[in-house]
Amino acid sequence: MLKLAFSIIVSFSVLILTGLGSCKTKANSTKLKNNSKETKPSDSYSLVITFFSIGAGVDYKTKKLFDEWTINFEQKIGKKVNIESYPWGREGEVDLCISTDNLSAEQKKEFISEAKKILSNSKLVRLEENVNCKRKS
Predict the structure, then answer these.
(1) Taking the domains of the chain in order of start, what are their residue ranges?
(2) How big, in percent rounded to 5, are the helix, strand and coil portions of the chain?
(3) Burial code of 46-78, b = ≥16 C-beta within 10 A, e = fewer?
(4) Residue 10, SS3?
(5) What are 102-117's pLDDT values in tens digits?
(6) Among the listed residues 128, 118, 129, the one whose alpha carbon sits nearest the alpha carbon of residue 62
């Protein structure tokens, strides 16, 4: 009787461990697929700016300052900056995915430099260069 109970416990344990191992492998292979998809150069943006919240809304003051500065920059250079907006939260959270491909090298350098200055004072803004837009479908 004891031998039978031991045999059942061992068999059950093997089944559980085998099942967990296969789930882990499946998750890892999915993760690898997603990572390879995210690194396509054609999906890369010059800047991805994330306005996020920690429970009290985004930094609306900095967002407004950035929006106004962008309009002035576009008027100054006579070109539109390609900005795609992807809202994702309930408190104003948004990703701005910015392509500067239509700007000259100098204009691109100026845009990125000034954007960094404007956004650097906020703890609720993340700025990344040459990355994919995570929230883009």
Answers:
(1) 1-38, 41-132
(2) 55, 20, 25
(3) bbbbbbbeeeeebbeebbeebeebbeebeeeee
(4) helix
(5) 999 999 999 999 999 9
(6) 118
pTM of the model: 0.68
Reported as a single tens digit per residue, the pLDDT across 48-67 is 999 999 999 999 999 999 99
CA dihedral 111, 115, 117, 118 (to 10 degrees): 130
If one looks up domain 41-132 in CATH, what number appears?
3.30.70.600
Nearest of 79, 115, 108, 84 to residue 97 by alpha carbon: 84
Grouping H, G, I as helix, E, B as strand and the rest as coil, residue 89 is coil
User: Which residue type is seen at 8?
Assistant: I
Answer yes or no: are the C-beta atoms of 81 and 103 closer than 8 Å.
yes
Task: Dig out the tokens for 23 from the structure.
Answer: 């789930």
Residues 95/47, Cβ–Cβ less than 8 Å? no
How far is Cα 129 from Cα 119, in angstroms, rounded to an integer? 13
